[in-house]
Amino acid sequence: MEEQPAATPASGSRVSIEQCQDMIRRSFRTPVVKFLKEHLEKAGCWVDENFIKAVHCEEKLSGGYVRGQGIIVCSNHMNIQDDVNQVVIHELIHAYDECRAKNLDWANCAHHACSEIRAGHLSGDCHYKRELLRGYLKIRGHEQECVRRRVMKSLSGNPYCSETAAKEAMEAVWDICYNDTKPFDRAP
């Protein structure tokens, strides 16, 4: 029997915590989430459905990775399954970075920038179709520009990184982190 697609809220509406938690469970069936989960476990870090929680967020963010606690997905900022999948993939890349690095220090602007560069580049956050939906119409060079913009946005929330320190850190680690595609063979 073929599984029916999940009902999604009407455009512009947000999902409840319960609906979001169901969407998180469905994200575990997607190829990229399965791949990342498998590689986290190979690296010695276990991920189960309790690792990722749907919550209501007061801040204007989609989700986040919290060291020692797991991933949160902000249900009140999600519209469709693809939104949830993107957040889960992005945050699993942060979890993978912390698992593999062991000494990753989120207060260190360069460490944080590197993980954000990787998550932005490898998750598909900056795919040109997503950028067009956000209102960014540049075709050539959009992906790196998008990753840079999103890294700076994320680092602006880090109390240890001034805007200048964030920009310097991002530029200092850009080449090495942008080209580090682990656990993928190449950027998906």
From TrEMBL:
EC number: 3.4.24.-
Protein name: Mitochondrial inner membrane protease ATP23
Signal found in the keyword field: no
Gene Ontology BP term (one): mitochondrial protein processing
Family (UniProt): Belongs to the peptidase M76 family.
GO CC terms in record: mitochondrion
Broad EC category: hydrolase
Keywords attached to this entry: Hydrolase, Metal-binding, Metalloprotease, Protease
GO molecular function: metal ion binding; metalloendopeptidase activity
PANTHER family: MITOCHONDRIAL INNER MEMBRANE PROTEASE (PTHR21711), MITOCHONDRIAL INNER MEMBRANE PROTEASE ATP23 HOMOLOG (PTHR21711:SF0)
